[in-house]
Amino acid sequence: MTSPARKAIRSLALILGVGLGLAAADVDRATAAEQIHPPRMDWSFWGPLGHYDPGQLQRGFKIYREVCSSCHALSMIAFRNLADEGGLTYSEEQAKTIAAEYQVKDPQPDDKGEFPERPGRLSDYFPSPFPNEEAARAANGGAYPPDFSTLAKARTYERGFPWFLIDIFGQYQEQGQDYIHALLNGYQEPEHGEKPPRPGLHYNRYFPGHWIAMAKPISDGQVEYTDGTPTTLEQYSKDIAAFMTWAAEPHLAARKQMGLKVMFFLIVFAGLLFYVKKSVWSGWKPETA
Ligand code: HEC
Questions:
Q1: For residue 187, what are the β-bridge partners?
Q2: How far apart are CA 28 and CA 19, in angstroms?
Q3: I need a labelling partner for 186 at 20 to 30 A (CA). Which of 70, 105, 156, 272 fits?
Q4: CB within 6 Å of ligand 1 — which residues?
Q5: Which residue among 34, 63, 69, 72 is best mutated to probe the pocket of ligand 1, counting the most ligand atoms within 8 A of its Cβ?
């Protein structure tokens, strides 16, 4: 190929590259405008040594019971899980008492074929506030309050380049928790006097698209704490986010401990292999032709 042709191709590629780069940056900015990045918080369950703080989970559970449970289900958690190690660590007696405060439908039909209501037992799952999704939507202006059993893991956001690389090395996985904390603190007057696209929506700084069907669910002083922790919205939103994390991943501490053991084993094993290799090949000399 002649050199002017090469030059032409090179400049074309350069122009294309710069153009594509600018377009990508623009897309980035467009999505950034839709969702503002939540501020980062400190979480006890961050990193390879992370674990739950039972006191914090118990406070979060209290908030769930007193506030959120009138709309949000917790369908994959059973009362016996309240006594699980690495979680809220209630005693079995305490878990039994809590279960008995709930009325649940017996999963077994009685002799009339009906499912009688009775006080909850350890083996029962948390009863849902609505019988089905349609009923939940009908009570909430058409919006569905998601089940808390998976929500903390389901809500995350793109941190974009270069943060996602830093997060991989920093082991940061708490974007969902940061988001829940920010969302609960994010209710405010609409910016630039924006009007809701339909009635019944509330302006939230951190909700994607800003208009959320959930009214501000919790404010300062609403839930009483007995352990002297401040009863502020800031504290509530951290505690409920921690509780929701536990609900979505009850075995986090065990998983992290196993990860550490595996890493330790691999490091020792790599060292062993290195010395075995050295001793096996120690007498070997390359053949000279
Ligand atoms: C009166 C009913 C009601 C109560 C009480 C309530 N919520 Fe909600 N919540 C909703 C509805 C409805 C939605 C769906 C909103 C939407 O899709 O616009 C929702 C959505 C959410 C979401 C998901 C937001 C998203 O990104 O999709 C979170 C997180 C949440 N609620 C947390 C809470 C917490 C924490 C509490 C208790 C402190 C609580 N809610 C109490 C009705 C409620």
A1: 204
A2: 14
A3: 70
A4: 63, 67-68, 70-72, 140, 143, 145-146, 151, 155, 180, 183-184, 207, 212-214, 217-218, 240
A5: 72
- Domain total for the chain? 1
pLDDT of residue 82: 97
Say if residue 228's pLDDT is above 80.
Answer: yes
Q: Is 240's pLDDT higher than 90?
A: yes
Determine how many CB atoms are found less than 10 A away from the CB of residue 121. Answer: 16
Beta bridge partners of 212: 202
In a domain? residue 151:
yes
10 in any annotated domain: no
Q: So what's the pLDDT on residue 32?
A: 45
pTM over 0.90: no
Look at ligand 1, atom 29, and give the residue with the nearest C-alpha: 180
Looking at residue 3, its pLDDT comes to 67
- Are residues 183 and 204 in contact, defined by beta-carbon separation less than 8 angstroms? yes
Secondary structure class of 89 (helix, strand, coil): coil
Residue located nearest, by CA, to atom 41 of ligand 1:
68
* pLDDT tens digits, one per residue of 143-182: 999 999 999 988 877 777 787 788 877 778 888 999 999 9
End-to-end CA distance of the chain: 42
- CATH code of the domain containing 157: 1.10.760.10
